[in-house]
Amino acid sequence: MSAPPTATGRARISVRTLRTDRWWLPPLITFLALLAFVVYGVIRTFMNQWYWVPEYHYLAPFYSPCLSAACVPGASHWGQPAPDLGPFVPPPIFVLPFVLGFRLTCYYYRKAYYRSFWASPPACAVGEPHRRYTGETRFPLIMQNVHRYFFYAALLVAAVLTYDMAIAFRGADGGFGIGLGSLLMVVNVVLLWAYTLSCHSCRHLIGGRINHFSKHPVRYWFWTKITWLNGKHMLLAWASLVSVALVDLYVMLIASGAFPDPRLFN
Predict the structure, then answer these.
(1) Per the domain annotation, does 14 fall within a domain?
(2) Is residue 256 part of a domain?
(3) pLDDT tens per residue across span 127-137
(4) What is the pLDDT of residues 17-53, one digit of tens each?
(5) For residue 192, what are the domain limits?
(6) Cβ neighbours around 257 below 10 Å, total
(7) 15 occurs within a structural domain
(8) SS3 sequence, 95-112?
(9) pLDDT one-digit tens code per residue, 160-180
(10) Count of domains forming the chain
């Protein structure tokens, strides 16, 4: 028999699981995918090289904006307000906390890593492995409540990456040019904007605190569009995560000389 839910805890079952399917497969896939991104991100951050292609103005997303005095010449489009603090504090360290903060506090990602990393809960109709459940009422999970503030930072980062995409259409001679890298950056920026704007905080910002939508037709129109995006938030979360890693990897390979950037024009 399962215990009835209470105001202070989760419903518990007397057996390991009531499921007969492979309930552990989705959490396992999520765990491996997120772990792969984390490992790549850590390695890429402390690699501290091959992130700028001066010939085509390609800047790797992990290093944008490059605000440290340690940044290579030409990569700092917004100045270098941060000092060079050595190899243990590479340039991405000054920006990644805001980007990761937005992802980690995202409602979808909470579900993803709560189930896959903490097994809290691992799946529906599966026994809760933890003795106590406090939700997001204690440190560090109470910090999930600052998601809306990380959303504002994510808007700035998306705007910066949009600028990086625009200057990536410069050719080798300083004029207009199109390469595979610049097209990949367009896809990445579109996915990042779609993921950011599909955020629950954005939806609340557009349509929250309104008692009568009929009196705010413009905001209601935007709210309906954001609501449609919000329904695809999980898909956009994964697509944008993959696109960031792939574009960063592509710029790294071009910058390292692994192969030339295929040019469609100039």
Answers:
(1) no
(2) yes
(3) 877 777 777 88
(4) 878 899 989 999 999 999 999 999 999 999 999 999 9
(5) 24-127+137-265
(6) 8
(7) no
(8) CHHHHHHHHHCCHHHHHH
(9) 999 999 999 987 777 899 999
(10) 1
